[in-house]
Amino acid sequence: MSLLSKTLGRVMPRYRTFSDWVTVYRQIIDARPIQPKTLQNRNASLRRLIDEFGARTISSIRPHEVAQLLRRLHAQYPHLARRVLIEARDCFGEAVAYGWINTNPAASVRHQPTKVARRRLTLDEWQRIYAWSQANQPPWASRMILLALVSGQRRADLQKMRFEDVRDGYLYIQQQKKGARVRLPLDLRLEAIGVSLGEAIEQCRDYAPAGEYLLRKSTGERPVCPSLSARFEDAREGVYGKHTGTGLPPCLHECRSLAERLYRKQGIDTRTLLGHKRQSMTDIYNDDRGLSDGEWKTLEV
Questions:
Q1: What are the catalytic residues?
Q2: Which domains does the chain show, CATH number per domain?
Q3: Residue 53 pLDDT > 90, yes or no?
Q4: pLDDT for 37
């Protein structure tokens, strides 16, 4: 295969290695409007493909070999296996478009269903976690937990919220993950806890030395993203202890799902709130993963 790559590969791309193609493919995805974090995740998936097929002639890679790789990954890392399949389909698809191969070996491979392991957060749990944080953690932590629920935003967007983003009666947010621009009115009120977005922001003004960020430590510096998740986890364990059951306990990101479910009951446009392009994505957040299965549903007339 190496000899073919060095000779015929000079004039016939299908005899070049998968690694040769990846050099071209990286230029393709680098030219796309992809956020840095997403690009980082895609490169991680791409490295899995390189480790498996890098030295292989690209035209020799078969669907069953892609499927075998995914089965091995799925056994330990089911979510990673799904991401690698998505990357493989795009990578080989571009190779077809550029004339390196005639068919996409990942196109017919199906991902194995992945059971969602993380449990959703309930309002009662959030209230207990928030109260524990107020009593036991640095002031920024409880304000972060409140902002997470009232705004419905991701941790990276919470971390970079600045006071200068508050103007004309709105909080302006350019989301880090997809770049969506969301403008939330300060009088947006989450009725379930009786707090508005403006009130949550006001609580961020005088608890620490003056600074540009809503969330900041006693030094005036903003906390790093992993600290936001860690503080929420510490507060959850402070209330409920170390998790020992099946699946995974609710994390900070579950405040986003809880916000969607609570605001939807109020009639708020949660698709805009969360910054999604498609309603189908918002509906995933609305799924409480069995929390309400035992509740009576009332028909309104």
A1: 154, 177, 253, 256, 276, 285
A2: 2-97 (1.10.150.130), 123-286 (1.10.443.10)
A3: yes
A4: 80
